[in-house]
Amino acid sequence: MNTVRVLLSVATNNAWSLLQMDVKNTFLHGELEEEVYMKLPQGDNMSKINVFKQYLNNKFPIKDLGNLKYFLGIEMTHSHKGFFLNQQKYVIDILHEANMIDCKPARTPLDSNLKLKTYRDVIPNIRYYQKMVGKLIYLTITYPDISHAISLVSQFMHSSTVDHLKIVHRALHYLKGSVGRGIIMRNISHTCISGYIDANWAGNSLDRKSTTGFCIFVGGNLVSWKSKKQSVVARSSTVAEYRVMASTACELIGSNTFCWT
Questions:
Q1: Which of 27, 28, 107, 202 would bridge with 208, disulfide CB 3.0–4.6 Å?
Q2: How many Cβ atoms are within 10 Å of 18's Cβ, its own excluded?
Q3: Helices (H), the chain
Q4: Residue 209: alpha-carbon gap to chain centroid
Q5: DSSP characters for 225-245?
Q6: Where do the domains of the chain lie?
Q7: Are 105 and 174 in contact (CB under 8 A)?
Q8: What is the pTM of this model?
Q9: From the first residue on, what is the mean pLDDT of each consecutive set of 10 residues in the chain (261 residues)?
C-alpha cells in the first residue's frame, strides 16, 4: 500500500488521470517464461489510452470501470484539488460486527496513562480478539493515527489479556468519533521527499524496549508511516534514535527509487 500511496501522490502532483479496469477472468495460459515490458505513452493522451484499453480487451475480457473510485476496500473521492482516501464503510462494518455502533466516541485511540501489567488475565474468546485486531490492521491504510495502538495490541495475538482487549475497544471508541476521516492527497506541484522520526526510549513497561516511529511524505502528501517496537533493548535514547534513523533511511531510499523510476 505504500507503493499505491506514492503512485497516487505522484499522479496527483502531476495532474494525471487515474483509471481503473477489472479483468473478468483469471489468466489461464500458464506461467510466463519470458520477461514482459510495457511502454507507457508520453503525457496523458486519452486517445492512446483508449487504444491500449481496446488492445487489452481483444486479448482477454476486461471491464472498464472509469475513473478510480474504489480500490481494495478504499474509497477514493477526487476533485481538481486532489484525492481523498477513506474507509468509511469498512469502519462502520467493524463497529457493527463488534456491537459498538452506538458506543460513546473517544477523543484519542489510546490512553496516555496506559500501563500494561504482567499478570495473565487471559480473555476467553481469543479468536474474537485476533479477528478484530486483523481488521484494525487493515484500517491503518487510511488511519495512521491508530497505528501505535494497533501495533501494541498486535504483539499479543496469541497471549492477549483483558487489558489488551480494552485497548482494542478504546480504538473502536475512537473510530466511532472519526468515521469519515482519511488521507488527503493534494496537488502541491512537486514530488520532493521528506521524512520525520521519533523514538519512545524504553517506553514498553514489560520489556523496556523502545518504539520506532516515522512518517514519509512524497510531494507533500503522507505516503508511509510506521510504529513498531524495536527488536532489542536500547541502552540510551541516542541508540534508539539511531535505529529509527536507519529504518527511516531505508524507507526514504525506497520511496526515492520509486519516484525516479
A1: 202
A2: 15
A3: 2-13, 46-59, 88-97, 126-139, 147-153, 162-176, 237-260
A4: 24
A5: EEEEE-SS--SSHHHHHHHHH
A6: 19-67, 88-176, 190-260
A7: yes
A8: 0.81
A9: 90 87 70 79 79 85 87 84 90 94 93 72 87 94 93 88 91 94 91 90 82 92 91 90 90 68 45
